[in-house]
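Hi, here's the filled form for the chain we discussed.

Project: internal
Contact: R.S.
Residues: 258
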Amino acid sequence: MASNNEPLFRFEDIHVTVEDKKVVKGVSLTINAGEKHAIMGPNGSGKSSLVNALMGHPGYGIARGKIYIRGEDVTGLAPNERAQKGLFLCMQYPVSIPGVTVANFLRTALKSLPDSEARLKTFRKDLKASFKALGIDESFATRYVNDGFSGGEKKRLEILQLALLKPTAAMLDETDSGLDIDALQVVAQGINRFCDENVAVMLVTHYQRILNYVNVDRVHVFMDGKIVKSGGPELALELEERGYDWIENNFLTGTEAV
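And the returned structure, exactly as it came back:
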């Protein structure tokens, strides 16, 4: 039974295997309401494998560990059931869905949520407000999902979903990848606007630059499938200056740092 005193999002001792290879090796994290945590690490360190496994992607098996949303164990649930409990994944590589318009896609997603009736009553108003906040033309609603979209448009659509679905826990997987500076600022402003004190955020990134626009509470460095160092926002700046070799040479000990 979930408790009101429980953190919005936590996972414990997560181990992930992909094709019999261990890619995540015992990761635990707690994110409270209103907190933003950044997961930083080099390519191939296991960051995306972690978020895909947490979301329930069938290609990323959780060999051990537990996932909790508002204190409720969701580890055994299907991806759509985890989403209905409030877990959201902003994908690094959003897929195209030809033939399905953005508006119909979003409306269908809302229909699957427990409080769908109330949300659908204000759908048009909320969609229009979100378009305006993200600098998106309203004609976007009639386009097919990600079909022929630029990289920036795809990422804005991810943030648009975040705005409309209002998740409990939002995992943002390299949302900044492939964006020019203008698109990055728009996406970051969307994160700041829609991830308020009622949302727990885990922002996965390779570079520090998005943290110039999104203020995070904690930074965790991810290498070799685990968290090897954690700290405040200043850790991201130090990492930018010294590089991942500094972490590997000084902190990669095989155990999670506190």
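Let me know if anything looks off before we file it.
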